[in-house]
Fold:
Amino acid sequence: MNMPSFLAENVAGSALPSALADLIERVVRGTRLWRSEKRDVRAELESHFREGLEELASEGHSEDAAVQILCDRFGNPDLTAKLIRRGKKRGRPMILKIAVAASIASLSAVGAGATYMAVITWGKPSPSIDYLKQLNEPVEKVAVDQRAWTVLADALIAFKPMPNDLAALDPASMQPGGADWAAVQRWIESNRPLLASFREAAGRPFYGFVYGGSDTAEFLQKLSESRALSEGSVDAASESDPLQPPLISILLPHLSEMRKVAWFLVLDSRDHALQGRLAEAWDSLDVSFRMGLQLFEGRTLIEQLVGASVIRLSCEEIRRFAGDQSEGMSPELSARIASSGVLKCRSDGISPHYDGELLSFQDVVQYVFTDDGNGNGRIIPSQIKRIRSILQDETAGEPRTGMERDAEILAMASRHADRRDTLLKYEELWHDMAGFRALPLYDSRRSDGDRLLNRFLNSEEVERFELIRLLMPSLSYADQVIRESAMEVAATRATLWVVIRHNETGTWPKSWGELSDLPGGEPEDAYAPASLRYSIGEDGRPVIYSVWRNGVDDGGSSVSVGDASRRIASQTPADLIYFPMAHR
Structure:
């Protein structure tokens, strides 16, 4: 039987029926092989279909029927392409497979590295939480006329700083009758018109300082103008940087002014007392104390520490004043003291709170890490560089060039933990150290908190948590200072009450037990599980003291002894005597 004409044409030439040619093209394209391998596959398929056409034609099938039968027998071309691709790859020489795999791995690594470097180098933060608003929420809830700051701000701007020749002296040495007292009096008189404003501010129930924003910028501008400071310093302070974390950059320009005002009030009290105006002398000390107390409402640790400094200054002067008036205090002055802020303040008003420190770290994180939308992300080198600059970090080494510095920061970023792990590690350390801080000052386990932090800072693990190294505060000493301030207030309150009772009865109480109406109860010793010591000295006057940092009752001795604490002077008093105060 002669070969049909359609078969003779297809065998003699290179063309196959279009349906079969399309099927071959789909298979060849689906294999995704190299060009030479595709050529071999195409030739094999064409040969296969020509043989099929020849066989079907010999059986008497028409061209269309033969093509349909071959397409049906072939099945799914995509699956065929996949199987051919797999078979061809398995059949390649091993050395070729290794070379291909190595090339792919290298290109993937280079691509991944380039992508990673691009992300961490040019990545931008996407902050989503307004932590500054959270910090200000308690303040915003208070009516403006209840906030001390609204009055205090104007008074601080109008306040005249101490002249340079006096400012160079130790304010503690400025005593009535001293060589510089006449100049001190002139300075005091220049600021006395502001006493009413300071008194009004101290009498308001809330501190009320608003963090950041236009209020601070306006205060800085007016303060600079009143002090004749350079305009550039104001511009720098009020500049807004959209990539700078707001909470770590909070400006507190009033704190140094508050210290100056506290000294003014103490010196004003000394001058009033010199003139016999005891009521006015007491009022100035009471105002100073209450202003220090208000700072403890601040949500930053630095405000609380400045408040502790102001309170300590005020309390020392109050106890001296009480000692000077221990004989012959008038009933009017006794009543004035009894109704003052020192005796009426809440015992828990002087306590540390660290919510601002926690918010600050969380705020920094959202400005220093990228955000993948699921609470995670990588650290941004340019942002960690910015944080180091703000903090003036001195432990980051001293690269010689800008390129070396940038390379060091890129290396740090490449090994830094991600956003989620950084937050978890910070919370873990914070929780552990908070437990140690909650212990009494006399509990030896408190030092374990510092050791815990130091172990972390000196471990290899810290390389993955550079941000924590920069921002995790060691709060144990701050906590110690604030607790000592609370003890000082309790001792001052007790001193005033003892002096008032002595003036009323003519005799000194023999023990705390004779003062059942003592405001706040017996004053606790922060360095012992007991009250402050109360004894009667050789002159018949009471001695009120703490066993102090060595934890040993030395009978009211003020002889200096060694102290092993790393954070305080190597020599401290054996006992801290609150009353009577040493002579000036």
Q: What stands out?
A: The chain has 25 helices and five strands. Strands lie at 533-536, 542-546, 560-562, 571-573, 576-579. Confidence is low (pLDDT under 50) at residues 230-239, 564-570.
